[in-house]
Amino acid sequence: MPELRKDPVVGRWVIIATEREKRPSDFKSEPQPVRAEFCPFCEGNESKTPPEILAYRDRQSRANQPGWRVRVVPNKFPALQIEGNLDKRGDGIYDRMNGIGAHEVIIETPKHEISLTASTPALVQEVLWSYRDRLVDLKKDSRFVYGLIFKNVGASAGASLEHTHSQLIVTPTVPIAVAEEMNGCETFFKYRGRCLFCDIVDQELSARDRIVMDDPNFLAISPYAPRFPFETWIVPKRHSSHFENIQRFEIEGLVTVLLTVLTRLEKALGNPSYNYIIHTSPFDRAELPHYHWHLEIIPRLTRVAGFEWGTGFYINPVPPERAAEFLREIG
Amino acid sequence: MPELRKDPVVGRWVIIATEREKRPSDFKSEPQPVRAEFCPFCEGNESKTPPEILAYRDRQSRANQPGWRVRVVPNKFPALQIEGNLDKRGDGIYDRMNGIGAHEVIIETPKHEISLTASTPALVQEVLWSYRDRLVDLKKDSRFVYGLIFKNVGASAGASLEHTHSQLIVTPTVPIAVAEEMNGCETFFKYRGRCLFCDIVDQELSARDRIVMDDPNFLAISPYAPRFPFETWIVPKRHSSHFENIQRFEIEGLVTVLLTVLTRLEKALGNPSYNYIIHTSPFDRAELPHYHWHLEIIPRLTRVAGFEWGTGFYINPVPPERAAEFLREIG
Lengths: 331, 331
What we know:
Two copies of one chain form a homodimer.
Chain A: E1 3-6, E2 13-16, E3 54-57, E4 68-74, E5 89-91, E6 94-98, E7 102-107, H1 121-138, E8 146-153, E9 165-171, H2 176-192, H3 196-207, E10 211-214, E11 218-221, E12 232-236, H4 248-269, E13 274-279, E14 294-299, H5 306-311, E15 314-316, H6 320-329
Antiparallel strand pairs in A: 1-2, 1-6, 3-4, 4-7, 5-6, 7-9, 8-9, 8-13, 10-11, 11-12, 12-14, 13-14
Helix pairs in contact in A: 1-4
């Protein structure tokens, strides 16, 4: 059973992943590159993954058989375990609980594609619907409070399989990074009476120098203070605190912007490793006036070193105005 | 002039390093490995670095000539610039200031050694004294509020030169990671009336299962909730909030523990890339009852992926009790 432990200094939770336990000798070689030979995510290899939780498939096809377009399965080596109770307890000055949660893999296409950009917009729409459907379903479990949808592409971004896929991890506490973001937005709201992200959209639309793409429903920008070169945010123009409340008419715009931005990043940077992450509100909050869901894309081009770990400052050698200009022009 | 920009959501500062500006094509190749051919840090090559700020050298030797044991020089490509005013200003909802600060390199030995552990304890004592002397000097400048001493070893940890060295970056604001750590310690102090790190030392000394090394003046432990496998903290047993107030009798103990722990990590993990960071109090605070300086060592064995960036949770496949046991036994 994995264990959740709380750092007593900053309150950060750490998952001690006993199911994935490693010995020191496992670290002596460089981290493995992405595996390419046998692919458990390809159509026809359904038996090599745990049984599916959700699949969008042809009417006449059967569960865990070919005929699907998007398929969601439990992670074979989950960071958190779905069954059991939290059993929160102290250990002197420390705090721990059982590592309960969910860890799922969204297989985005039955074909062995290594980039989401190889898919059709119609298929990518289904990927986004699968994110939503899984969040809505997991929200019903009262042990869970936060669902994070993310994607790791390339070895430097932490991917271990190349077949294009996303992941969903559901945690039993609000993650510290989410709490910090929500607190920042709440402080702004209390002071100014407006949503910070709505203000960001307004200011970027009038300044225009950090816009990557301006769609009727979504704005893609290089943020004002990006941690990483070519970091790009996709922000809905309509205020909404929860990704899972996305409207049907918005999904189409999001697919267009996401595919366009990813294609341009691939072209500009030579198929870089990257992560994307959906920033959304915790399960137990109703619609919030001060928080605004969005998607952040982080190309993994630079290395995080001692200065960043020690301070939380980041050194970025590409001004966002230059990154945005480049991503506009390459389009 | 580098620019400091504040992320409006979480309040994190980012350095837009215009002096180091890169084009997209600079990222198309993998990050460069550590350079090994010509070494500007070796004795005899003093003219290849900016003029020295401090050197411990033989009496008869001259500045920027051979004859030194430890040498501190400005970073040739500084993240922050020493001259100028902060010129803090707004930009709509955003905040920015000039990238003023200091960025120095501590060359730890005149010989081309790639690990600090190749040095004698007497020389490593001088390295630690040079850290202290530089902090004490930079503290006098009222524009500066925080000094971070850190070390990057190996390409995965962000090093670009292999000759063993440390760095010092001084910032004009309290870094967010430091503020969070100090706030956590202050909250604990207000609630319990004791220093959190003093309590950690006590609990670890009685539990004993996370101790790596127990010296009369310092305790090396695998922390209770480590982000990374084999993460190790070296904590002084005597309460003190500022590293630069270290006592002469403590320096010797710190050198012994630091060299022992680094040697064991190198042996256990096959000369891993790592960072070490001195966590200490801001310049403008007097001695604090609630904060306790310490040194954190982070071997860079795993990759930070989308889940970690999105949540601030970390997944660690090595329980700290196992890591500590291994590092005790290999000794």
